[in-house]
Amino acid sequence: MTTQVQDPDFPCSLVIDLPLPTSRLASAASQALRVDKELSPLVRRSFYTLPAAVSNPAEDATLVHTSEETILRTEYKATTNRMLRVAVNGFMESLSVVLGVMEELDIDVLGVDSGKE
């Protein structure tokens, strides 16, 4: 068992995992969101892409990790819960814009042809 050591300077933390259809989209979202730096020195944020875990139909309750990194993980650390909330709210607004652009410009996001031309 591993234990995560809590940073005494940044005691409040949150991890957000966002599954996306392809590794290309996860990487693009990470690059787009990474551009905006946190404005406050009281908040730290990091991005990672991770492989997805999917159920193995051959064996019940067995998870198989794929090699394609389709999960965008965002880790936040802050000095207070309020600072964490403010930072995450701003991140969610930016994420909404990024996903909206992907939906409009990339057919992979929906997985179906929307019929727009």
UniProtKB/TrEMBL annotation:
Gene Ontology CC: EKC/KEOPS complex
Superkingdom to which the source organism belongs: Eukaryota
Record-linked InterPro entries: CTAG/Pcc1
Pfam families for the chain: Pcc1
Biological processes per GO annotation: tRNA threonylcarbamoyladenosine metabolic process
PANTHER family: EKC/KEOPS COMPLEX SUBUNIT PCC1 FAMILY MEMBER, EKC_KEOPS COMPLEX SUBUNIT LAGE3
Name used for this protein in its record: Transcription factor Pcc1
